[in-house]
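User: quick one, fold this
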Amino acid sequence: MAIFPQYDVKERAELRDLSVPILQGRVVVVGTAESLKGKHKWPDGFYGSRVGLNTGFDPAVLGGVLFAEAIKSGRIRLREANSSERNLRKLVRGRIDFYLNDRMTGVEGYLGVVRGQVTTVNEGHIGYTTLQSKFAHLVPFVTALDSVIVELRQSGEN
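Assistant:
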């Protein structure tokens, strides 16, 4: 009936009916304190760098459209790995210069690795099937859940 798509990605046609936003995800640049020195403008200040992403993540969603364009033009080299842990190990070993992921990604166990600036802010939603005719109870459920989410937000419990 519903799943949690991280962000509102237009290619997910089967999940076009979305809840009100349930979270705000902030994507940050992760690097060493030394490598982040003087890096103030995203993505321009990172041209020439090797930037890690988790496999399957959309560069435009995590780093913005200008980041995706910089990858396509070769100004930034994209390096993918299948987990945050692998990307963080690559960062520590100098195989990538920076890594993009949610600000909640645990970097504390990696010596010298720190969070830098926010690259994008995305809202997360619950995605509902577009096949509503098969689920008579879906519309009342969505309406009720959205009301609860709004109520929690207004009370400060988000």
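User: anything notable?
Assistant: The chain has two domains: 2-21+125-154, 24-123.
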